[in-house]
Amino acid sequence: MEKRVREIHSALLEEYGEPSPPSDMPPVDSIIHTILSQNTADENRDRAWESLVDEFGKDYGAIEEADHDRLAESIRTAGLSNQKATRIQDALRTIREHTGGEYSLGFIKGMSVEESQKWLTNIKGIGPKTAGIVLLFRFNKPYFPVDTHCHRLAKRFQLIPPDTSAEKAHDLLTESVPDELMYSFHRLLIDHGREYCTARNADCDNPVCRRFCECEYC
């Protein structure tokens, strides 16, 4: 499987080039940012993030202690704002209580991938994808985050069985994707999923799909 992953990765690199490196967003910001991104478009997430920062700055304490309705209103453009406000406040409280008063995830550096993934997903509202983004993007830990594009393409490219759940896909792809390719492969799959290999009416007339895709549109 590793050989196939490397071949697909090389083909995607030829099509899209090397992805830009991850931003230097602080890990706690990344938790909030990723919660905002759940079940919405990037544009809506970014607008909600800007609104949140306008309302509270980056004062994690103020966000944790904020009136729920005020917080939810500030992130309304992300959708599911009541649910996401609760998740953000739960996450901040859990981090603060774990560290004895600090809003910092620095302790994750000393944890194994398994320990850190378990710790993050124990926070209500943080699933494997959110945890994976924080671990891979912020701490360079080898854990493969699976969003809807990665899940769809991994099945179409026969990297995982067709009936694999998104949750199980995290484990399977973490095992099969080489550590040094995880970030770029994740980003490239998303690029290809948006450009060609869409959920419906996929455009398979491209070099990558012609070589590797087994979807019903090819």
Q: What is the CATH homology-level superfamily of the largest domain?
A: Hypothetical protein, domain 2
Give Rg in angstroms: 18 Å
End-to-end gap: 22 Å
Helix content: 55-70%
Structural class of the helices, strands and pairings? Answer: mainly alpha
The overall strand count is 0
CATH domain class of the largest domain: Mainly Alpha
Low-confidence stretches: none
> What is the CATH architecture annotation of the largest domain?
Orthogonal Bundle
Shape: globular
Summed up, the helix count is: 12
Following the backbone from N to C, one meets helices and strands in this order, namely HHHHHHHHHHHH
Characteristics of this structure?
218 residues, mainly alpha, Endonuclease III, domain 1, 12 helices, 61% helix
Structural account:
With 218 residues, the chain is mostly helical. The protein folds into 2 domains: 2-21 and 144-212, Helix-hairpin-Helix base-excision DNA repair enzymes (C-terminal) (Endonuclease Iii, domain 2, Orthogonal Bundle); 27-139, Endonuclease III, domain 1 (Orthogonal Bundle). It is built from 12 helices and no strands. It has helices at 2-16, 27-37, 42-56, 60-65, 68-74, 81-99, 113-121, 128-139, 148-156, 166-176, 182-195, 207-212. Helix 2 packs across helix 3, helix 2 runs antiparallel to helix 8 and helix 7 packs across helix 8 (128-139). The protein is globular, with a radius of gyration of 18 Å. It starts with a helix and ends in a 6-residue tail after the last helix.
